[in-house]
Write a structure and sequence with these properties.
The complex is a heterodimer of chains A (196) and B (253). Chain A is an all-alpha fold and 196 residues long. Chain A has helices at residues 3-14, 18-40, 44-58, 66-89, 98-102, 111-128, 132-143, 148-155, 159-179. In chain A, helix 7 (132-143) packs across helix 8. Chain A starts with a helix and ends in a 17-residue tail after the last helix. The relative contact order of chain A is 0.13. Chain B is built from 8 helices and no strands. The longest helix of chain B is centred in the middle third of the chain and has 55 residues, at 60-114. Chain B has helices at residues 20-35, 40-48, 60-114, 116-120, 161-170, 173-181, 186-192, 199-217. The chains are: A mainly alpha (196), B mainly alpha (253). Chains A and B meet through helix 2, helix 3, helix 6, helix 7 and helix 9 of A and helix 1, helix 2 and helix 3 of B.
Chain lengths: 196, 253
């Protein structure tokens, strides 16, 4: 959906239109979930669900355009993820099974779809192996679709710092891909689960 | 969507070409440009930003449920607020009306028992000058000159009006007639609208005026039933001896 279409959906949802809200959910949720996977691993869906509770509750107070709405949603999700990580840090840690993450989008029946979905999960997982700042910068810009300035506002950094982190992260990934590490997409490293 | 490892065409791995500007260009290119980019990194970006899969939006029903709940709560929050606000407005309006009328009645009483000199110092308005100011505490209320009883109305001076009225009503008819000519009652006569052209009519005006003043002074009239907030005296009610008095009655509190 283009920007103006999503902005119309925002306005309609703020007026109580459930269909419009579903449009917003479908537009934002995939990128949000992938971003959250990099932050909290297999708990991403739970954190996303909590995030949408808050998004639904506070939607009426939102003011802004499509990019602002995506950023607003991501900010809410990031806060929920940080809360989740703080809570998790007080509990015994359990390594995230790779299969759990790979089952992210395994609902489709066809083998082809499953392979494609797996590939998406692999890509997100690979990005998540980057240092936290680089991973978040890449995901916000590439997956969520925010510009450097907006991503910087979410992460509390300047746009230049976000571009630098994006550059370093993608270059690092390019090097790894060039080496063609066989287990690269299997190397789930819940690095971001260790932060904060 | 492309799979970096399953792509039919060989992907370039020349990551050494990826300087800062090239990476920024790559990111800004978006999915469409990534799909046609032969580099492995572009394939990775394509995969990471692929359209939603069914599993990724499996929580849609839960989110929609949360949305419905939020809408319901918002609606139920708004309604009582509106009701309470409306009821509050009604109560406050009534209270303000009663309090302001009462306050002005008290001011009128204060004036009646001794503030006449102060009134004398005030400039007078025209015939129909009515000052409906916002309710103020009586102690701070500046009473505007009452000029509405009749074109000849003037404030009283000397003894307090109720005292004069009491003296007037205690007398018989002959004495009352004398009082109508007595200079010491001039202020009272002026306030009552007596103009000396018709003895019977003057007497009736004086009787009526003093009856009303003494009735109010003795508490016969409940506070707040006066519709005139312009100060003392108040004859803007049904007892108004002059039915043609054009003053607006019951100014909004």
């Amino acid at each position: 959906m283009d920007g103006s279409g999503l902005e119309r959906a925002i306005a309609a949802a703020q007026d109580g239109d459930e269909y419009a809200f579903r449009v917003l959910y479908r537009a934002v949720q995939p990128g949000l979930l992938r971003y959250l996977h990099a932050l909290v691993g297999a708990d991403a869906e739970d954190v996303a669900a909590e995030s949408w509770l808050q998004i639904a509750r506070d939607l009426g107070a939102f003011r802004g355009d499509e990019s602002g709405f995506r950023a607003w949603c991501v900010t809410i999700a990031r806060h929920r993820a940080m809360d989740h990580l703080r809570y998790q840090r007080r509990r015994p840690s359990h390594p995230t099974p790779v299969e759990e993450l790979m089952g992210l989008a395994a609902d489709d029946d066809t083998a082809g779809c499953a392979v494609d979905a797996l590939t998406t999960a692999e890509a997100v997982t690979l990005i998540a192996t980057l240092p936290r700042e680089q991973a978040e910068a890449v995901l916000l810009r590439v997956v969520v679709g925010l510009d450097a300035q907006t991503a910087g506002r979410i992460l509390g950094r300047r746009a230049g710092a976000i571009r630098t982190a994006t550059y370093r992260g993608l270059r690092h990934l390019a090097v790894r891909l060039a080496r063609d590490d066989p287990p690269v997409t299997r190397a789930l490293a819940p690095t971001l689960k260790e932060v904060r | 969507m492309s799979n970096p490892r399953r792509h039919s065409a060989p992907r370039r791995t020349d990551w050494s070409e990826l300087d800062r500007a090239a990476v920024e260009d790559l990111v800004l290119g978006g999915p469409q440009a990534w799909r046609s980019d032969p580099r492995q990194l572009a394939a990775l970006l394509v995969a990471a930003s692929a359209p939603a899969r069914a599993g990724e939006v499996a929580g849609e029903e839960g989110a929609a449920r949360a949305f419905r709940t939020a809408c319901h709560r918002a609606a139920t929050r708004r309604r009582p607020v509106r009701r309470v606000r409306s009821a509050l407005a009604r109560v406050l309006t009534t209270k303000v009306a009663v309090l302001s009328a009462g306050a002005l009645g008290a001011v009128a009483l204060v004036f009646a028992v001794g503030a006449g000199d102060r009134i004398n110092a005030l400039p007078f308005g025209g015939e129909n000058t009515v000052h409906s100011e916002a309710p103020q505490p009586p102690a701070h209320k500046v009473i505007e000159a009452p000029t509405h009883a009749s074109p000849s109305a003037r404030p009283t001076s000397g003894p307090a009006v109720p005292a004069l009225c009491r003296e007037y009503v205690q007398r018989d008819r002959r004495d009352r007639d004398r009082m109508l000519d007595d200079p010491s009652f001039r202020g009272l006569r002026d306030s009552a609208g007596v103009n000396g052209t018709d003895r019977d009519r003057d007497r009736a005006r004086m009787d009526d005026y003093c009856t009303r003043v003494l009735g109010r002074d003795s508490g016969d009239r409940p506070n707040g039933d006066s519709g005139d907030h312009s100060g003392w005296p108040d004859d803007g009610d049904s007892n108004n001896p002059d039915p043609h008095d054009p003053r607006p009655h019951h100014p909004v509190a």
